[in-house]
Amino acid sequence: MSRALRPLLVVLFVSVITSFAVAASPIPGCTEQSGPSTNGSIYLICPAASPNADLVIYAHGFVPPLTPIGIPYDQLVLPDGTNIPALIQALGMAFVATSYPTNGLAITQGVDDVKHLAAYYTNTVGKPRRTYLIGVSEGGLVTAKAIETSPDLFTGGLAACGPIGDFNYQISYFMDVRVVFDYFFPGVIPGSAINVPDEVQEDFASCTTAGCAVPYSAIIYAALNAAPGKMSQLINVTHVATGPDPAQSLIDVLAYNILEANDAIAKLGGNPYDNRSKLYFGSSNDLLLNFSVKRFKASPVALAAIAAGYQTTGKLSIPLVTLHTTGDNVVPYLHELIYFGKAAQRHSLGNLVSLPVFRYGHCNFTEGDAVVGLLALLLKTPVQ
C-alpha cells in the first residue's frame, strides 16, 4: 500500500466506525473491540503505557472453519506457558490481535485485516513509534504476505512456522498424507482427501471439547498403532517429522485435511490438489502403491486463486525475521529453504533473517525462542 493511500484508509475507517463495542478480555488490561462494521472482525487491544510506544500486531494461526469468530486465546500462549501479550507488554510495547473476519482458510482475509488493524490502532489509540507484525503458522504466511505487499504500514515482521515457501507444496503435503493414509488404512476415515463428509469434520472438531458421536481421532490413533509396519511405511513415504508418539504426529497432519479440505475447496473455487503425475516412494511395494493410490486433478480456478493471493514473492523492502522448528510435522521446515531461495532471486537477503529452532513439533517455541526472534527483529529495525 502506498503512503498516499494510508490517509485515505484512515478516512475510510472514520466513516464506517460510528461506534464500537468494548468487552472484557481474559487477559488483564486488554479489551475486545468490534472491528469495522463492514468487516466483522474482533480486535484485541492491549495498550502500552504510552500511546506512541512500539506496537506489535499479532496474526493468529489456523482456526477450524466451524469455530465461531473470536480471538483464539489458546494461540496466545506458547507451549511452555508463556503469555505472548504479557511478554510483549513487559518489553514496553503495545499488543493487538484480530480474529480475522473468517475462520478456516483465512490468509487473504488475514492480510487485509492486519493492514486494517494497523490503521485502526493509529486512528483510535495513537500513532506508534514502530509497528511490528508477528504471525504464527497460517499467520506466518499472513505476515510474510503483508510485509511484502505493504511495507509502508509496518516497520518489520516476524513469521513463525508459516507455509511461506510455496502454498501449493503445503496443500500437496496435507493431501499426500491423506491419500497415502487411505491406501494403507482404507475406510478408516470416510470420504476422500477432497471430499470430507460434514459429520466427520464436525465430530473430529468436537471431540476435543464437548465429546462427539464418533471419536475419529481415537479410531485413527488405534488403527495406526495396530499396524506399526504400515504406519512406518506411511511415514517413510510422506516424510512427516515424528516425535515421541508417531501416531499423534500423523494425526496432527491428517487433522488439517479433515477440518479444512472442504472449506479450502469452497474458498479457492475448486480442488487445488493434483497428484496425477506424482510418484510415491518408501513403501514395501512402491509399484502397488503408485498403481492403487487415489489420484485427483486440480481445478485451474483454484490454482489461479493460489497464484494470485497465497504465494509469496520473496521481495522484501523492510526486514522479515523467520522462526521455524526444524522438526515441524505440520508445516515442514523446507518452506524456509524455499523462501530463502525466493529472497535470493529478488536480491532481498539483506532484509531476511532466518532462525532455525532445532526441535520437534509445530510452532513448538519457548519464551527464549520468542525473545531471540523479537530481538533479531528489533536489531534489524533501529529507531530512526
Description:
This protein is 43% helix and 13% strand. The chain is built from 13 helices and 9 strands. Strands 1-2-3-5-4-6-7-8-9 form a 9-stranded mixed beta sheet, sandwiched between helices. Helix 6 crosses helix 9. The longest helix has 23 residues, at 246-268. The two termini are 21 Å apart.
CATH class of the largest domain: Alpha Beta
Order of helices and strands: HEEEEHEHEHEHHHHHHHEHEH
State the domain count: 2
Provide the helix percentage. Answer: 40-55%
* Mean residue pLDDT: 89
User: N- to C-terminal separation?
Assistant: 21 Å
- The secondary structure category is alpha/beta
Would you spell out the secondary-structure blueprint of this structure?
Elements: H1 5-16, E1 22-24, E2 31-34, E3 42-46, E4 55-59, H2 84-90, E5 94-98, H3 107-124, E6 131-136, H4 138-149, E7 156-160, H5 167-184, H6 198-206, H7 216-226, H8 228-238, H9 246-268, H10 286-292, H11 300-309, E8 320-327, H12 334-345, E9 352-360, H13 367-380
Parallel strand pairs: 4-5, 4-6, 6-7, 7-8, 8-9
Antiparallel strand pairs: 1-2, 2-3, 3-5
Helix pairs in contact: 1-3, 3-4, 5-8, 5-9, 6-9, 7-9
Summarize the structure.
The chain is α/β, with parallel strands linked by helices.
